[in-house]
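F.,

This is the one I mentioned.
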């Protein structure tokens, strides 16, 4: 990144939003931006700017997922709550032991997944609830792109669980603590973010694993680009992009690096249609980068706190951001 003063800027297109608390997640439900706050509430911002604050938990919100129609949240009150674009919400699961809901995920055909303590749960679209005992607390949950299969990251690896099958889950082993997990869009690869500043991946066809290292800090955010050709990740003083366009994925390959900066990337969000990635940095700056040529556009200047959440709307015409100290905004790129 050259001097930000020399980079094309769309900062004047940002409409500020006063979140009133740390933003732990952002998602769009159609054209409504939903800011997930660290305590109790969601803030829904309609296309005309009208705001609606909805209390959905009696305490902290620990986990969030979205499927375009609903926001799924897990809280320290032991509830899993689904909220729609109108702010209507319902608790669709409650932990019998009142444990924290550490992770949540949306699956196919109306299925949802969540974890509490050393257990993972899946509720199928028909309302059946299945559970699985884990070797440790879940670090991340992700449903496979096809079929009802849940990947659960935990200490020493990942469990691949078919909730409707009687067989024990397949375990992909690798020493260390795995804190997040993600399938590639084609379902051929699985990647975890670890406690150490590294990723670990597996090719699911044969279980061959791959180390993806070289970060200066822990990877807290990762996402695949439209079409699945690249995996964009935080964790370094530039945007790190791992190639997944071939049958071997990033095996034996080096990542591409764009948007170099003096501060570390802490959040990423991939444009839904183009190979463009929004990167949020630890000083509050937000930069858009085009992968092909590394072209950059400044979307937010540095602020008082790190970027904690980023999200595009369905067609990539708007980008929402939030920070750890409650500053937020929606950038209109249309």
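My design for it:
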């Amino acid at each position: 990144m050259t001097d930000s003063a020399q980079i094309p800027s769309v900062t004047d297109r940002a409409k500020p939003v006063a979140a009133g608390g740390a933003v732990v997640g952002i998602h769009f439900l159609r054209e409504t931006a939903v800011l997930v706050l660290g305590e109790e509430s969601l803030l829904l911002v309609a296309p005309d700017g009208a705001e609606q604050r909805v209390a959905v938990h009696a305490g902290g919100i620990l986990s969030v997922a979205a499927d375009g129609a609903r926001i799924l949240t897990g809280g320290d009150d032991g509830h899993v709550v689904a909220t729609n674009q109108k702010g209507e919400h319902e608790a669709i699961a409650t932990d019998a032991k009142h444990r924290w809901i550490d992770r949540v995920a949306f699956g196919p055909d109306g299925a949802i997944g969540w974890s509490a303590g050393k257990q993972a749960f899946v509720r199928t679209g028909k309302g059946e609830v299945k559970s699985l005992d884990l070797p440790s607390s879940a670090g991340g949950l992700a449903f496979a792109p096809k079929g009802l299969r849940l990947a659960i990251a935990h200490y020493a690896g990942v469990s691949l669980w078919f909730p409707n099958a009687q067989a024990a889950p397949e375990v992909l082993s690798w020493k260390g603590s795995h804190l997040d997990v993600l399938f590639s869009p084609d379902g051929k690869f699985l990647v975890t973010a670890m406690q150490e500043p590294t990723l670990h991946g597996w090719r699911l066809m044969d279980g061959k694993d791959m180390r993806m290292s070289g970060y200066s800090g822990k990877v807290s955010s990762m996402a695949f680009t439209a079409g699945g050709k690249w995996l964009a990740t935080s964790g370094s003083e530039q945007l790190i992009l791992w190639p997944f366009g071939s049958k071997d994925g990033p095996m034996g390959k080096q990542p591409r690096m764009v948007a170099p900066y003096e501060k570390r990337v802490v959040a990423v969000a991939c444009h839904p249609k183009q190979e463009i990635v929004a990167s949020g940095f630890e000083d509050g700056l937000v930069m858009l980068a085009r992968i092909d040529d590394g072209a950059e556009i400044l979307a937010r200047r540095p602020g008082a706190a790190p970027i904690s959440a980023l999200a595009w709307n369905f067609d990539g015409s708007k980008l929402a951001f939030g920070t750890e100290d409650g500053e937020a905004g929606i950038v209109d790129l249309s």
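The two ends are 24 Å apart (CA to CA).

Talk soon.
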